[in-house]
Amino acid sequence: MNDHDKHIRVHIVDDDPADFLIIDELLLQSKRFQFEVNHISSISEARQELIDPQCDVFLLDYFLGPETARDLLIEARKVHCPAPIVVLTGVESGTLDDEVIQLGAADFLPKGDMTVSLLERTIRHAIQHKRAELELEQMVKRDPLTGLGNRLLFEEILEGSLARCKRAGTRLAVLFMDLDRFKEINDSLGHPTGDLLLLLIADRLRSVMRESDFVARIGGDEFTILIEDLHDAEDALNVARKIIQAVSQPSAIGGHELNVSASIGMALFPENGDAPIKLMQKADIALYEAKRKGLNSVQCFTSNLQTQLERHLNIEKGLRHALEHDHFELMLQPQWDLRDRRIAGFEALIRWRFGSELIAPSDFIPVAEKTGLIVPIGEWLLQTACRYLVKWRELGVSHYRISVNVSPLQLKTGHFVETLQSTLKSTAIAANLLEVEITEDSLLDGHEENPKVQQDLSRIRELGVKIAIDDFGTGYSSLRYLRQFPADVVKIDKSFVSGNGGEALAEPEICRAVVTMADSLGMDVVAEGIETISQLTRLRAMGCRMGQGYLVSEPLAFDEATQWALAGEAVSR
Ligand code: C2E
Ligand code: MG
Ligand code: MG
Fold this sequence. Notes:
CATH architecture of the largest domain: Alpha-Beta Barrel
CATH superfamily of the largest domain: EAL domain
Radius of gyration: 32 Å
Number of strands: 25
Bound molecules: ligand C2E, magnesium ion
Largest sheet: 8 strands, mixed, barrel
Number of domains: 3
Number of helices: 21
CATH topology of the largest domain: TIM Barrel
CATH class of the largest domain: Alpha Beta
């Protein structure tokens, strides 16, 4: 303990004034420490003081009117009370001792045995232990690259700040910041440069924040900032603008001059909620909106975004219900040979049956991905696709492939490969009748190549299941990645085919480049969204062999698709 540790601030929580005086007297006799004592006579009053940063230690009487130290110890743990609590009691009991220690008390002292030196020693040890415990805790809650807090620590600090603001009737703001186009910088200049940039950004954030603000890094290029003591929303907006200004200064790193920009989403206490999770959720939603608006934008959470959030929650509830009650349907859209329009396979496309309506995936897949529900939904659709193949086999139709769309989250967190393996085994379906479609973006995790995804893809291929890269050209396309990832088919996104609503091919150059590239890598190409003869002819002339689109057929219900399959089977015989 150093010199300033000689001054110790003690909160004595005891409903008996006589006991308080005895302890106070003893502490005053100390020659080693200078104790500053504060008397608290009830649990409810003590509760208010648990997060008091001025307090070094609590001496807490076990029995306090109708309540006991238990209640306060439980509360202390909940609010992450930074001071140790030593429990005092008039009765000596081994079980009480065990009980309070388990609840997080630093020590247990019988009042009868108290001497100055015993009190001094107990208090000193309690403070030292608590400090070590907090340091360790902080280490686990730090981002190793920048030394900033991580999400855990941010949530914890936010909880403490909220409690303080509620008491003081003040405002606070939670900011979510995300660097724009960080992935591109990281990919083109390499991870070491990306890391240096993150370090520089962390420093700039530290330099514009006040002592009382708190900054954390909660993901690849995502930072959160907590600002206390605000007068109004305008105050918080000013800080956000200052941050953006600091972050978007040109950065000289490794011989490159980098221009980064950032987007910020913001939520305020008390306007937007009073729980950490709510405020973080809302700041995140506002960030999403800021990113949509463009580079260097700041967005406050608004009632409009609130409506969006409610819609999101409603969809989530509906999806859970739909999963339980089997309210999904799997439609099949034919994929055909551009030369003779003979069907080669079908893409499975999900629909949500809601009363008499069929809801399109674009209305619910984003929510399913955000909530993780895509994992059980994905399992359902894999099983359904296999069930379809079994039915066809029973009808003597056995050479049409079904492709299923797989969301990145299924590969990252689910047991997709295991489910695939066991489904193939239990249905005895030939693996080459299944194809997995993944989008280009799922090959990367934030800005990094995801080894788990890559591994899973290799395992899928080892099973004999084909892999198609979906919506090619819309994500962060890079030949480098395409070479690296095991895939059999590339699907040209429909925006390049019929995206402009015209008769002709929308982006002939891009289509041609994808066909040439796929050819050189020995991959097949499927053009999506073919709506007109002119598009078909042009694609065929480029050497694209397969297509999919309304020109031949929209997605079909299973029975109808079965008719197509039976007819095609008859032709091919
Ligand atoms: P996708 O995998 O690229 O699917 C192709 C989408 O294009 C389908 O939309 C299909 O109905 C539509 N389409 C087909 N032909 C044409 C055409 O000629 N013109 C136009 N304009 N559109 C055409 P859908 O069914 O609404 O699905 C949208 C997206 O939702 C899919 O894009 C896929 O990313 C996702 N999705 C659909 N089903 C599933 C699923 O079961 N699981 C997952 N994870 N995602 C799915
Ligand atoms: Mg697809
Ligand atoms: Mg697609």
